Amino acid sequence: MLNAELQPDKITDTLQALQRRIEARFPGSGLAETCNDLIVFSSQTPRVTEEIVKPIIWLRVSIGAFLLLVMLILLLTISQFRITVGVIDLTNLVSLLEATTNEIVLIAAGIFSLTTIETRVKRARVVDALNRLRAVAHIVDMKQLSKDPDNPNRELTDEQLGRYLDYCSELLALISKIGFLYITKFDDPDANQSVNELENLTTGLSRKIWQKIAIINTRKPEPRSSLERGGA
């Protein structure tokens, strides 16, 4: 059985190393700034994910108090009906059954709503974080869209452009990894779906980047022969 899992600090360390590489080759670039913003986000992720998995005590207390109040209302409602021992008045019986049924439906709806509200609150935090990561992924995509291998007026050489696009692809992969951290301890179908959508987005964007890299690689000059190098 595998016990390995993603380590948030390792992802942050990888981002920091990538930021240094980007800054070394492209000092002051927007890509380096985006990577730095992602480092800040990544460093905050462990704290946020720990808060998400913790029980919301005040909410649970509120739920318990509400359910207790509903039960008291139900008991008071039932106590208002008088049924003579041995003789059941049909009107009172129908009224009692109708009121009891309504209260039971109300209790069931309240219990369902209140027992899921904590999950909905946590899910909202996860989705909000994933939306922020999705926005960063689109920022990276905008940066790579401006780097066209077929643009004759571009400032970067093929080697520089290939390295820049490679950094964009690495950033997208790390964005996906950060997103996965939010569901490692929070098992929720909707949150899982959001993470899958983020992964599909980053994979699709990375695929476009590698198509550009492939174009650059096809233009690399062939290695010179031994005669061209002055050999025998």
Description:
The protein has one domain. It is 75% helix and 0% strand. The chain has helices at 8-25, 30-53, 57-79, 90-145, 158-181, 189-218.
List descriptors:
232 residues, mainly alpha, 6 helices, disordered C terminus
Write the layout of secondary structure elements.
Blueprint lengths: L7 H18 L4 H24 L3 H23 L10 H56 L12 H24 L7 H30 L14
Counted beta strands: 0
> How far do the termini sit from each other?
59 Å
Please state the average pLDDT score: 83
- Secondary-structure-based class equals mainly alpha
Q: What characteristic shape results from the CA principal axes?
A: elongated
Low-confidence stretches: 222-232
What is this entry, summarized?
With about 230 residues, this protein is mainly α. The chain has six helices and no strands. The chain has one domain.
